[in-house]
């Protein structure tokens, strides 16, 4: 196995350990297909076990009413790829957005992003999310789909340390390490996924 | 938050917690699963080296707080952030209230911050008529219940799903189900609206990186990201101790923090924020960011040679996770705001001696916390030191003063012990236990039988026992400690019997006395020092290769604390260094030095299980030797569940908190009985006393013995 292959392997194992779904894609077209398929398969605004069926206070209920159809957000995406995504969404009757995330804070179905780096040791995505639109897409989406080019996988966090420091020196900067979906164990220490952030994290390892 | 005025009230509170079955079960399960999770998370890591690295990073930072703060401030301000220094809690709260006013903020969302708990920030904000909502699920729950956290990482660990269901039913005005997944989703959707409405977001910070003016936030839920993104104003409140020079330091700490906290390799989110970030809700498209850096006694702590290590704490909460006392009574009784071992300490520094004076006595000194602390802090040592200080300030209670006085005078002490033998006569049974305890004692201490003082102490027997060795290869001095000398001399005799025939010359210096640990545990540091000096002098004259002791607590105290006790006196320091380096526990001596061989023993196959004394397994890091000796001596070793968890003795602790001691003992003995062993072996007379007394009170047939006794029996 080449170093890169073994890093990929390690990354996959570690990411799956923290409940991320990992798949390999040959190119960006395949990644776009994956996101659109996933959007099609998932139920609209279903917060899994407890979707819109749980009774909420009136204010919180009202917020939920703002969402009408399935939404896929992909801020900060390369134009060619975005166009392809938008076209497929249109075909499937989904709404595709590249900005204006603040109109969708009740939640969107899918946030589609590309990671800057991966850290194999912990199955972590490193995402420079200085732009607010991109940041929100990774947070208010029910499913976060993130493309990680294989060549960007490093072994440990220390190998991205100098890059991080450089980025921080060019402030403002907002960088996230994302390791699996949002989680809590605050009630009786029982693990529950999807507290404030995504319920699912899909990582697409891109051949490059 | 404990509210007791005195120890008696505090004991009452503890009793209440002990009776809370839900809490007990939850914390029991947690203690067991945490241990496994942590071990797994660190399995490929050189944990000791990593802890050492963190300690040195944090120590350097603490020594450089002023410079780091200046550099952090300069870089953060260059990136458009406002940086404020807050002298104390009140100052911090005032600054934040003013920011709220200046930015015309009315609604505030918060993500979890222990520092904000420390300053009671929510109260201050609410007094200004601001709406504050906690967004971390656990914090939100306790906020709604008007409680403080009961754990630093899992603040609502003391509550059941049913309590949360009732609470959420109230909050939503709709009936909820006791289903955790569903309750979590209810919180998600209820809180989403709060983020959207908020003007200001308040977070803490796990790291403040001077080189770039960056803050780092470590969370699992993702709420800190929303709190720092959606509102137009962001305030981060952090202690001065969060300052670090660079990213490398932060990443090093990050390697241990989640692993130690929850057994996770990394939390779901780690967020690095630098400078005034894009905020599309603000009129100029930029977020207004304020860093409030809180001192509240930290810079003073940093200058204290002993206490500065407290600033190494990274708030992983692990010292509560492994604490047997926390496991029994929970965080509301094991801290004021900060919880666990570090909670006892920080309560003193941040919230004052009145709040701390009962708490600091509630440490059994088992060293479980010290063993796993991410910063390598000597937590039990510092707890004792604070206990001493409080007593110095408030006056020492009579019993501890008396014991201190008595111990300092060896002859008096030993005379008292000898006369106790006569005083106990009317109560003594003929089986080595005191049959009838005086009534005052019996009420709380009935969970175990207490031993009687031996007919003849070891020191009186020694002249007849001392073997003549023609060609000694080794010369050892025996240190008995008071319990083995006066209560269990037969344990010492077993040791002598085992060493015989191995060309070991033995001496028992008569001037030796109590090791001094009991008085140290009672906060009588001066008496502890005097006794230490006496003992070192008693052993000075002989040229011993080893000082062997059969008592794990004595061994660990002699080895680790004597030097600390005489710090500052160079002559005594060098004496202590020489003395301590020769001290060895019986098991290590028999196994590693004498290398006792199975051929010397009969094989009886007696089923034996083992209790690892805290001061042996953690205090001296001895794990394998006693277990291997059991097998060497021809017994069948049966592993016991939680073998390295404290038996609840803790010397004077069991007198002060008998209810807690009894509970710890109960658990220990349940595990022991489950092994099906005939005999329970251990390496410490204190543990023997506790365990034997407990089994006797249960009417169990399991015998409790020192490892050496079982070995001596089987010696051919
Ligand atoms: S030494 Fe033991 S009892 Fe004391 S605080 Fe640490 S873990 Fe708790
Ligand atoms: S004292 Fe040590 S174990 Fe306790 S919270 Fe701090 S770093 Fe963690």
What does this molecule look like?
- The complex is a heterodimer of chains A (208) and B (716).
- Chain A has 208 residues and is of the alpha/beta class.
- Helix content of chain A is 33%, strand content 26%.
- Chain A is built from six helices and twelve strands.
- In chain A, strand 2, helix 4 (79-92) and strand 3 form a beta-alpha-beta unit.
- Chain A is globular.
- Chain A starts with a helix and ends with a strand.
- In chain B, helix 9 (161-172) crosses helix 10 and helix 25 packs across helix 36.
- In chain B, the strands form four sheets. Chain B has a six-stranded parallel beta sheet with strand order 1-10-7-4-2-3, with helices on both faces.
- Chain B has 36 helices and 18 strands.
- Chain B is α/β, with parallel strands linked by helices and 716 residues long.
- At the A-B interface, helix 3, helix 5, helix 6, strand 9 and strand 10 of A face helix 2, helix 8, helix 9, helix 10 and helix 11 of B.
- Strand 9 (173-178) of chain A pairs antiparallel with strand 9 (269-274) of chain B, so a sheet runs across the interface.
- The structure holds iron/sulfur cluster (2 copies).
- One iron/sulfur cluster (SF4) is lined by residues 313-319, 340-342, 373-375, 377, 379 of chain B.
- One iron/sulfur cluster is lined by residues 313-319, 340-342, 373-375, 377, 379 of chain B.
